[in-house]
Structures are given as structure tokens and as C-alpha cells.
Amino acid sequence: MDSKIKVFVDESIMEKGKEACAGSLILKGFISPFDATAVSRLRAEGISISGRVPTDEFGIGSFFADEAEDVPGAVKAVSEDRSSCVLCNDVFGQIRRQAALNGLSYIRPTYGTVSRYGLIPAVSSMDQIGVLCADPETGKKLLARIAGHDEGDGAMFPDTKYNYISKDSSSQENKIRLAVPDHIWTESDRELLAGLKDRFETKSIELKYYELYRQVLYILSCAELCNNTNRYDGIKFGYRTKNYSGLTDLYLNTRGEALGLDAKLAVIMGAFVLSQGNYEQYYDKAMKIRRLIRDSILFDDYDVIALPVRCGKTRYEELACLALPALTGLPSLTVPVGNSGIQLVAAGKREAILFDAWGGIQ
Amino acid sequence: MENYNSMSKSMKKYEVVMGLEVHVELATESKLFCSCSAKFGAGANENVCPACAGMPGMPAVVNKKAVELGIAAAIVTNSQITETMTFDKKNYFYPDLPTGYQITQLYAPICRNGWVDIETGAGKKKITLKQIHIEEDAGKLVHDGRTGTTLVDFNRTSVPLTEIVSNPDFRTAEEVVAYLEKLRSLLSFAGVSDCKMQEGSMRCDVNISVRETGSEQLGTRTEIKNMNSLRAIVRAIEYESQRHIEALETGCEVLVQETRRWDDNKGESFSMRGKENATDYRYFPNPELMPVVISEEWIAEVRNRLPESAQDKFARMTEQMGLSEYDSKIITGSKNLAAIFDKTVARINKPKDVVNWITVDLLSIAKGDNKGEDDIDIDCEKFAALISLVDSSVINRTIGKELLVKVLEEKIDPESYVKEHQLGNITDTGFLENLVCEVLTEFDKSVQEYRDGNQKVFGFLVGQIMRKAEKKADPKAVNELLRKMLD
Question: Which CATH number fits domain A2-210+293-361: 2.70.70.10, 3.20.20.70, 3.90.1300.10, 3.90.580.10?
């Protein structure tokens, strides 16, 4: 039955012979010379790719837009055909949020467990292929097939297989201990929590440095986006301006014409935070805070953190509540609850307990 | 530097202060972050894959062998190896850099604080090293004058390099040359790199400034980039230090801190584009690569596998094999000659003979072909067989020399070639005696001279006999026979 799963990939995941544009005009006409490891591993199991769904340019979306968030192409695709799944790279959280708000789930596995070979890089230290699906059961089966060490990615754990399916050892015997950072739940979403207290041993925690999450996410992601888009210079592949005389012209016009507004903002911000005199003040400081954030999440007297999927009015404000997995590399499962959703976060490589917790929520 | 002092019109004395950045290509089979071949000399863009062509979707993966060669470089330069080294990204746009960034090491390079001993006419000196880091090479731009376009070759892209950064410890061009030769010896014997300047696998940037002798403060520094011959380096240092002194003396030119290019044809240095000096490379830690932990065990493993150094080999040759210091120095001056020596001695255990054949015959043939010591390519099995044929008097040395050329050029097998062409020494004594008699009759005047006490004529007579024998006589046998018949 598995081979009947309809799997889509977003435009940042490469399939040999297909255009892979990561939502950007600058990669128009770039034909993948190889398959992403995620794709080839599915193919090896007899699961073919049913098609490609559009994505925001490099998955950035629109940091500063005031208008309501667009529903990402991946969410539309699974909403239309609830038996399908989409492999995509959700760094900033809009796919997870919109998935939950549209009755779907998203699994973002532990950083370094699914190969990024064949994923067009956006924010290398946060990029992680995940699965969007209606039923997390389907998602975890798919994930089990694509996860595991790959020679083609230099920042992976050495484990060759991950067991997402069997119950987590600790949750078999004990009740899952759920941590709820009350301070970030809005009034309207707080009612989702009410039912959880019966099913889980819950405790209230405070997320340290939470007020810095989105700034750190923003600084680091802009820096890495800036660097990762350097290769799009109009020289070798993808878009090239027709209007140039000389090299600098070629660079400026190619990038000027083919990068979108948000990508440009990210490039400018990234160049700013990495430049001499700013590096220590912005990039280096953000890296230090990122480490503090990582070290502050202990999982000592709780197993799973329950986070809301909404926390602000603008996109920039909304970055905060879903930033934790990208900043720390921790795995997360986002599920719809009521008319909103919950993002569950567990310790590294403990995806299994997320699925167990989801079982408790249902 | 007396010559500079004498040029100073105001009778001030100047001191030249230099630091070196030496780029050495690591002798790996494959590139630093992908599996493409790193070999020199392939056709344009033959050693290229999506990763080193800068396509997205192929994360960098560190070549472990390159790290090991870096560790070896650290060991032979007495450096302190970093426990956890990291890679950084250096951002700039240029068509020979397909990703728009170079992966290098700024924050935690593979090692720091090493040193190298050098020896010049002025004596021994310790050159201290700031650090060694590993980085990837860039591609090559080729300007096509016919069409007016510029083409790019990515074969060198991502080929692993180490950059060896010295402190400003150099005062003379002679020290610089001694240092570069020492580095070449250390690194090539350790198998880190073949260090071929003409192929670009060893390149050098010189940072140079001039100050009044006795001054503590350094002068304005200029950097001359990318030089790849010792001769050019010496000339560039002489030119550039003179330029600095003249600027200080006359005040006509204001020295600025800048990067310069050496034009060896014109014999001048030129300021490179001003932007180069103003570039902000926006270095930051490479998030694609995990930090590399270099354990004590790993270092020990590399240390145990290190081949014999030139210094140890020299000691072994002079102390254990009884070879002269002069010959041993020639052999250990080149990794290639040392390898030829070792391989040949392994087959015919006569070090003295092998050294003679290398230093006298092999090197003169190479010199005649305009080849350097590192370019000699010889099948050591055949070389050993040839030496053995001469040693056991099957052929004489003159024929042996001729055959050596054929071994090098035509790859002949000496033993079968000697049989096939009947080049073996004449062993029939009756026949030889006849030849000697013929010569004695033909050159009776010379015979008389010899009997009158002119010893020199003896050699002439031997030569005549050898000629008659078409060189196929054993000179020792001819000597003995001639002496017997004359006395």
C-alpha cells in the first residue's frame, strides 16, 4: 500500500531532469543534474514522485508583509488530496502554521537525520526536509524511508536508520510529561490546552530567551541566505540578465532583476550582519544566544514541549513561536487541534515520543 | 642587506621585514569537498561535478585525506594542532569562484605556532609560523583573444590547499629562498604535496615592508601575490624593497598598504585593482560542515605513517651507508631522486653504485633534456637491472650509459636488449689479444713513448682498443691485458 502513497516535493527538492527553482526566478531553467537523496531513497522503495508544488522564494515567505499569510502551495496540494504528502523544507514555520490551521500535520525531523543532498540550500544550519501530510501515520512511514546517514551531506548524524514507528521506551511505561510555556500562549489558543491536562502530566515552564528567538532566527537566517544566494550570479546556470556590459553589470542586473524583494532584503540584512564591524555585534552575538537557547532546553522533567502555532499579528512577530526547531535542531510535530494547532517539540532523535504524544491528543 | 644600505643616499640604514604566505596544494586524489579528481593537467572542465561547479543542492563533505595531510604538515612544521578545527566561508564574487564563497579556515585553523629551521650563509635561523589553514582553490579564467571572451575552467575549483602563514621573520631574499626550499623538502618528503612551483602546486605571497635599522615599528606593508618561481620571488623582493627605500628616501611616492602583482617580464610590481584591498570578505563559520575533532590518536596514527624525512634519510645515507655528504645532499634534495634511490637500492643493494648512477648519469641526461630532478621518470626495476649488468661486467659502463638513455626514452628492458643487440662484453681473450696486438702495431710510436716513461699514453691506447672493440670490451680486462703485453 505504501507504494500507492502520493508524494509531492516542493520546488527546492531536486529531481533529475526536472527544473528546480526553489520558487525563484533566478533559478529559472535550472535543470537538476541528479536526484535528491530523499527522492532516490523513495524511488528505491518503489515510491515515485507525483509532482512538484510551488514554494515561496527559498522558503522565506514575506517577513514584513502586513497582509494575511498566503497558504503555501504544499498545504493547498494536501488539502486538495488528503491522501497525499509533500516533502518540503520549512525553516520559518509558515508551512507548519498553515498546515495546522488547515487541518493538516507537519513533521520536522531532528536536524541532521534527513540528507540535504539535493535540497536547494536556504539556511544551511536550519534546513531540514520534513513531511506535510493529513495523517502523521503516513508521514512517519515516509520519513522512516528517507532518514539516515548519507555520504552526500557533511552535517549528519552517523545513524543509518531511525525507528519512528515503535513506541518510545519511556512513554510505554510512564505518562508523557508535557511542558507548556504558558507565557507564549495567546488567550484564544489557550483553550486547546484544557483537554491536555487530563491526558498528560503537564507542567508550566518558561522558555528562556524567548523574546530573542525571532531576532536570532532573523539574523542567522539572513546571513546564511545571503551566502547561499552568492552562487546565483548569472555566470553558470539559471537566470542571466540580457542587459549588461561587463562583469559587475552582469552581477547587479541578474540579481537585481531575478531575486524577489524578500530575498533581496535577506541578502542586504545578511551582508550587513556579517560585515566588518557588525559581525561581533550581530552575527557572533546571535550565534552565542543560539547556543544559550539550545542549552536552556533541558528535557529534564518533561518529555515534550507544547507550543502554539500563532503568536502575533505580523509575519515577523509570528516567527517567534515556531522558531525553536530551526534554532535548536530539535524535532517537531505540528498537528491541528480545534480550529488552530499545537507544535510538539521533543529532544533530539526522539520523534517517536512526538507520535506517542499525538496519539494522546487525538 | 648591504646592497640596500649602499643605495641609501642619506646614509640611513634600512632593514627589510618580510612575512610569507605559502599556498601548497595537498596531494589528495580527490578534491576537498567532492569526489572529483584533483589531478593536474586534465582538459578544461573535465574534473568537474555539480558541487565544484557551484550548483545548489550538494552540501560540502570534508575529504578526510586532506585533513590528514594537513595534520602531517602540522607535524613536520612543529605546529600546535587544533583539537577541534572548523571551516569558515569567505564571500566574494568572481567568475572563477562558482559558489561565490571560498571554504577556508579563519577562526579555528588546523594548527598554530609552528616553526621551521633554515640555514643560510649567515647561519642558522628559526622561522616561526603563525598558522596553517586548509582551504579550497578557485578555478581559472582563460581569456580568448580571438573572440574577446573569457572562459572559465573549474578543474582547480575545490582542490585542497594549505596556506602556511609565517610571522614577519624574514630579513633577506636568501632567507626566503632557504625557507621555501626547506618547506618543499619537509612537505614533499612527508607526502603532503609534490610542491611543484612550475605547476602551481606551491605558490607564494610575500608581505614586505622596510624600516630604518633599529626601529621597532614596522613600515607600510605591501603584499606581492601569487609568485611561482624562486627566481621571480628574489627579483620581486629586490625590486619591491628598493621601491620602498626610494619612497622613504625621496618622498616622491607615498607607500600605501596594498596588494601588488609581480610582472616577471617587465621586472616590476604593479598595484592590483584598488577594490581588492577594500574587500570585506564577510567571513563566517561554515554551517554546512561539522567541526572536525583531531584526536591525539589520530595525530599519532598520522605520525606513525609519516615517511622518512629528508633529514633522517640524509643521516641514514651518510652514517649507515657510508655515502658522501655531497651525494647524500643531492639525493635528499628531491623527493623524486630519493624515491628513485630507495626503490633502486631495494633491488640491487649497492648504494654507492646507485648514487653514482643517479648523480653522474641520470642527472646529466635530465639536464640535457631540460628536466628538473622532480620530473625524472624512470622504471627503477630496469634501472637496477642496468646497474647490475655493468656491475657484473656483462656490459661496460659506456654501453651502460647509452642504454640508460634508452631505458628513459624507449623504456627498453636492458637485459633482453643487451642479448638482442649483442652488446655484451667480449669474453674471448684470444680475440681481445688480437685487437691489442693490432693496436700496438698500428701505434708503435705511442708504444715507444710509453716505454720511455710517458704514462699518459696508456689511456690513449686503451681508448684505441675500445674503439676497435666497438666499445664492447670490459675496460678492466683491456687494461690488464694491455699492461701484460706492454711490460
Answer: 3.90.1300.10
